[in-house]
Amino acid sequence: MNGRLEAELNKQKAIKDKLKFLPKIFEEFYYYMEEDDRSYNTIEHYIDYNVELMNYITKGEKDTEYYKKITSTQIKQFISSQRTKEINGELVRIGDSILATKCSAIKKFFVFLSDLNYIDSSPMDGVRRPKVKSDNTVVFLEEDEINKLFANIKNMANERLLNRDLCMFSLFLCTGLRKSALVQINVEDINFKTGTIKVIEKGRKERLISFGENMKQLLLNWIQDRRDYFEVTEGGPLFVSQWNNRMSTKNVELLLAKYLDGVTDKHITVHKLRATAATQMAVHDIPVQVIKEMLNHENISTTMRYVAAIDSQKQEAVNVLDGIVK
Q: What is the pTM assigned to this prediction?
């Protein structure tokens, strides 16, 4: 079973298990989105967000037709209530992008209800999607911080996991892969003769990424350790946990947080490793179009953010050096 199919079947099962405890309307919503070829991650999030709305409206009381009575005002009140969340006893501000996604999920639910004639009109017609404030600041690791990250991996990882973690984080930085694509890679997706890996990107798009000789050696080192230290088959998930299961994106985030100890004060997530790969290419004057293709960006304006970040740093360096001149 390939990585994509295995991950999708697991996610599909998790959603269907969840649906057993929800009103029947959510099962119909699930199949409606599945026909729309939505990813299972999106389907799960959209269901979860609408369950949150249901619980807010019904206050936990059983009401299988609650959606017929919801007003625009109630939805606005719900969105407003989601602007903060209590984490470890502290109120934390929720990002505008998450609020906007919740709003989109609710709108999709009412489009579904309208399409299937469960409602005559949508209360979302009177609700504005929260604006997402653009932040053009690009956060990434500098070269010395990358070196510190790998030094931490070598010092902190045990023998059994060392080559796995070196390989995994190197692959992020050498290819700019998204974490969802990286954890889905199977051993059989790697072609050492051509120096390519078959990956599944956003929108279930399949493509080939290339790797060089250093990355090849890291992959070979890890595959040998995978064979020696783990109870797994020759094929299947490339990156496995210490319990012999496919690594999850959450596993990867937690590992990165551990290895970033003392490396930087920046807020670095796995996605920022993608930004790091992009900016490193820009630093070395790789053409913008090549960076775009490497990162599989749909729009070149996204790629230009990384190039602009490096240009800004270059200008700062020019200004600093210019200040020396008297």
A: 0.65
